[in-house]
Amino acid sequence: MPPSGKILNKMTVSNGTSVKTISDKKPVLLIFLRHFGCTFCREALAEIAKKKTKIESEGVEIVFVHMSDKENADKYFKRYGLEGALHICDPKCLFYQSFGLVKGSFNQLFGLQVWMRGLDAGVLKGHGIGNYIGDGFQMPGVFMIFKGEIRESFIHKYASDRPNYEQLANCCAV
After folding, report:
1. Which pLDDT tens digit goes with each residue over 28-37?
2. pLDDT per residue as tens digits for the range 26-74
3. What predicted TM-score, i.e. pTM, was given to this entire model?
4. What angle do CA 19, 20, 25 make, to 5 degrees?
5. Strand order in 141-146's β-sheet?
6. How far is 37 from 129, CA to CA, in rounded Å?
7. Is 4:86 a contact under the CB 8 Å cutoff?
8. Residue 169 and residue 127 in contact, taking contact as beta carbons nearer than 8 Å
């Protein structure tokens, strides 16, 4: 069941505005991250940093949801060239749950496919691995929200899945 406008109003981003308010004016690419120590979270931040200008030039606002505190999140966003990124702290994963994002199974988090991609992203591409900052079992997801409604989504089947952020953003580009 999609989240209600009530939930979107409760989702206050780092600049004090709600996701609902932003989405009434422009499309929002709402990115629920895994914990910041996760190789795939780091890979996602690096990829989004590369595509940020293109996505935002289409009139889309990028908002991250994470399980950390604001100060720690700001350090990671700065590290990946995303300083000033709009984000929401959700250490209890209540918003993750509201969007139907579940805890991963062993296979979704540690299966062979995940290990193979982890080796590529973590070692070969240099995204490394760090300490858990949040719930290591929480699965990520990406939602395009416009006028308070989900227009498109990508729900990760495995922690190692890679959404096409530009394609998601194109569904609602203004």
Report:
1. 999 999 988 8
2. 999 999 999 888 788 888 999 999 999 999 999 999 999 999 999 999 9
3. 0.89
4. 95
5. 86-89, 61-66, 28-32, 141-146, 149-155
6. 5
7. no
8. no
